[in-house]
Each structure stands twice: as C-alpha cells, then as structure tokens.
Amino acid sequence: MKKFQEFFGGAGSISKDRKDYAQYKVFSKADLAVVINHFNKYPLLTQKKADFELFKSAVELINRKEHLTLNGLKKIVTIRASMNRGLTTVLITAFPDLVPAPKQKIVDQEIYDPNLLSGFVTAEGSFMVSLKKSPRVRVGFSV
C-alpha cells in the first residue's frame, strides 16, 4: 500500500483496521485529481473504465458545486445507480423514481502494453493450484 501511495506522489492515506487488512483512501480534491489524471493518461480496459467515467462525472459535478442543489444531488445519485452494484437500500428508499445514468459499454479491451498486464498481476493477481477429493473423477482428485 505504501508503494501505491508513493506512486501517486503521497496522495491519499492508508489505514489498517486489522492485522491482515489495510485500505488506501483518497479524500481531498487535490489527491483525487492526481488519481483521476493517472487513469485519464492510462485508461482502464474493462467495464471498470465505464465506472471510472461515471465516477469522474460525479467528481466534476462536485467540483462545480452542483451537488449543493437537489437537482445536482439527484444527478450524482443517478450516476451512483449505474456504478458497480447500484444503489444501497437507503438510497433506493430515498430516491424511488430514480432512473440510472447511461453507462457506456466498453468494447475495445485490447492490451496494448504487456507491462499493463504484469502490473495488474503484481497488484491483484495470484496463481494457485489446488487439489480436491472427488469421487467423480478416475484418479480421485480434481485439480
């Protein structure tokens, strides 16, 4: 996590809630701009890119102080409704007639730079082989 924070020039903070669990969080607008600029320069390749674009539009609304109006707040909630797992039960209750914002479909997912893949695997990946007893296979184990 510290290397990640250093990569972003010290932006954000790291919290360790448990012995085996840490979080990297970005709160300030200045720190958030550093992270957004990185992903503008090096775009995500999966549907996460669509979530990022939605997130970025919400940040732009906040930077323009539109979130301080009811209409602006509703715009942010429509954006949130289209991201990741959608709205929480509390937000669905508070905004029952809300229509989620349109979400772009990411079609070009070609990896142009092999370093991107190695960086992703370094940060997120693991390789594992496990054996499990299985009476359905001839050797008694499935891989």
Describe the structure.
- There is one protein chain.
- The protein has 143 residues and is mainly alpha-helical.
- It folds into two domains: 1-34, no CATH class; 43-142, no CATH class.
- 45% of the residues lie in helices and 10% in strands.
- It contains six helices and four strands.
- The protein has helices at residues 2-7, 29-41, 48-63, 70-82, 89-94, 114-124, and strands at residues 13-18, 21-25, 132-133, 141-142.
- The chain has a two-stranded antiparallel sheet.
- Helix 3 (48-63) runs antiparallel to helix 4 (70-82).
- The protein is extended.
- The model has no long low-confidence stretch (mean pLDDT 82).
Strand content: 5-15%
Anisotropy-based shape: extended
Supply the number of helical segments: 6
Radius of gyration: 20 Å
